[in-house]
Amino acid sequence: MSLALGVHVGQQNMSMGEMRSLWRKLDAAKVDWISTWDHFYEAPPAGGTIDHFEAMTTLGALAADTSHARLGCLVFYVGYRNPASIAKAAATLDHISGGRFELGLGAGWHEQEAKAYGYDFPGIGVRLDMLDEAATIIRGLLTKERTTFHGKHYQVENASNVPAPLQDRLPIWIGGLGEKKTLRLVAKHADGWNAAYTSAEHFSHLSKVLDQWCEKEDRDPATLKRSINLAFNMGTTEAEVTKERENLAAAWGPVAKRIESGALLCTPSQAVDRIKEYEAAGADMVNIALRAPWHQEALDAYIEEVMPALR
User: Domain holding 184: CATH number?
Assistant: First the structure.
């Protein structure tokens, strides 16, 4: 199977019209995947000062606007919505998209927006326990006629989800980099694992750890897809790439070096080899992550030059 090429579109700093035009352009270019992220504020955090659209409603428009790409959110933070409501929305989005929707789940990280909107944001251990329970409920509601579950954080009682998704098994992705618990939950619950903004070497290491968790869960590692999101900081010249590096450092501050390790911070001629490093590290799909503004000429070069060279 050839490497899938997707685009992860942050729904910020654009009008809805501009974003919808972008989706249509990407879908016409036959990208394999288009996703949103799940935030109320911008990322990286800037105190809620940049225009930003909500994820679930945005996905409804994305599903209706496109016809080719697989669609999803990388990833929904389970603390923002009742898991049963997530399952209901996922089934609905699968119908709107004609069976192209895939559900991403995660333990969240954007504490600033959570506190601003009045959500509890417990420690990572508790949030991962929430993810475990939420994934159990959601899988049940996407595959069974009735689901009952009584956990510490979430409960459902004889709940149905009709109509069921169009897909016989709507894929669930779990995102994160944690070796001890996150990857165990991937092996336990998910059809796919998504990592974001990390090096090919680290991705390869984590993929091997995931294989080990699959063995402990008595699961064939080959049944799990693996994807990486790379920050899109391409420029058409070395001078533009240098400017992109400066912008990335200013935006991300103390975590900029980590983000840079998982960024497409290069010219188009260098991008093919960079992406192939992730394919060699075990990635089934590579997504470029767009945060407006970006160099439009660089994005056009990615679509017209880089993607064909990788297919």
Answer: 3.20.20.30
